[in-house]
Structure formats: structure tokens, C-alpha cells
Amino acid sequence: MTKPEITIYTVPNCADCEAVKHLLTRQGAAFTEKNVRGDPAALQEMQRRAGVRIAPVTIIGDQAFYGLFDHQRPRILAALERS
């Protein structure tokens, strides 16, 4: 089974963004980070993939996770475990 692609859409100085990146790193998950504040194309991509305009957005395969890190942490861990 191949591991799904992971992308995290972030903005600078965002505690939740940093928390997601730290979690993924601790889990040994390779990910691509895209800063949506300085990259309009990344912002449009995030909106298309997740339907929201707020960072962080974490995409694991075809699943999108967004909102407060504390609420998303269990879902992100479960998605990583399934992959």
C-alpha cells in the first residue's frame, strides 16, 4: 500500500499550523507545505480542495482536515494510521 500524498496549507505565525506540522513530523509523515498568504495559486488550490479559506488545511490523500488543531488531531492521526 502506498502512502497518500500529504499537503498542509499554512500561514505565517499560526500556532495551529505549527502544531499540525509538528504532529506530522513526529509521526514520520512526509508532507508538502504551501503558504497561502503569499501564494494566490496555493490559496485557490486550498479552496478548491477543501472548500474553506482558513488555514491550516491538511490534505491526506483525498481527505481534508481544517479548523482548530485540538479538534482535528484525532482525525489526522486516524487518517495517518489508515494509510
UniProtKB/TrEMBL annotation:
<dbReference type="InterPro" id="IPR051548">
    <property type="entry name" value="Grx-like_ET"/>
</dbReference>
<feature type="domain" description="Glutaredoxin">
    <location>
        <begin position="6"/>
        <end position="63"/>
    </location>
</feature>
<protein>
    <submittedName>
        <fullName>Glutaredoxin family protein</fullName>
    </submittedName>
</protein>
<dbReference type="Pfam" id="PF00462">
    <property type="entry name" value="Glutaredoxin"/>
</dbReference>
<dbReference type="InterPro" id="IPR036249">
    <property type="entry name" value="Thioredoxin-like_sf"/>
</dbReference>
<dbReference type="InterPro" id="IPR002109">
    <property type="entry name" value="Glutaredoxin"/>
</dbReference>
